[in-house]
Amino acid sequence: MVKEYIEYFVKKKNQFYIVQLVFLIILFLFVMKNGLTAGWNTWVLQGPYNYPHTLAYLFLFMMMLDTFYFIEFREKFVILFIAVSFACIILTAVRSVLIASIIVIGYIFYRVFSRKQFIKFILYCFLLFVCIYIAYNYGLFDALLTKSKLALENGSISNGRSSILISSLYALKQGNEYVNTICGVGMTNLLKWNGININANIHAHNDFVDALVGFGLIGLGIYVYNFVKFCKNSFIWMMGTVGFLAYVNGLFVYSDIIPILIYAKLLFSHSKIQKNRIGKSL
Length: 282
Known about the structure:
mainly alpha, two-stranded antiparallel sheet, 73% helix
């Protein structure tokens, strides 16, 4: 099935570039008209979405598909799409997505440069640091730094993720703890509990805890089984990106992102799938 997706996206490569360009134009026009969004005592890129996280996730997975195309076809203009997506992720100030996007960039270096290209690798690293330095001087990192500073001043670089997680787990104790642990309390009751306990109607910001508290050990088992199956063949890279996001922020709560998770599968599974295909043909 993944092979069919690869063939489809290779065939539709130019259409994807057009769609992505149109998306960027629409986002640019929206920001020109409405400006950035106030958040975390600064201004962040959010676009027409309820949360900047949604936009950051969109850019991350589009960046993954662009990376897939770049590695496959070595079309240099695709680097511009990757750079724009990376810059927009920085402007959203969503740090979890930024870390995942850095891992994607690391994957590019891992796949593109061989051991014999050490000098070329150093040159590209130097150019990358120059671009980061210029971007820093032009204020691209201002929202990100302001958000991190605010988090540290409030005592947690993760904006209280550990407290949210612990509070969410305590929702299992509200009622019959054994039944709740097996079957869960439901996401609605999880939100209500956190609203009472920490004055915020929020989920656990961790897919695994959300699955456990919301749907019990049964739901968690189903989620973990399918997650591991999804990460098959490229477990380390998938866990460093998709797994990292599931753990520190959550994926399935952003339901509009779920369909494009396939972009991560395409990126990290492609080479092994091609080798398997060649091996079978031989």
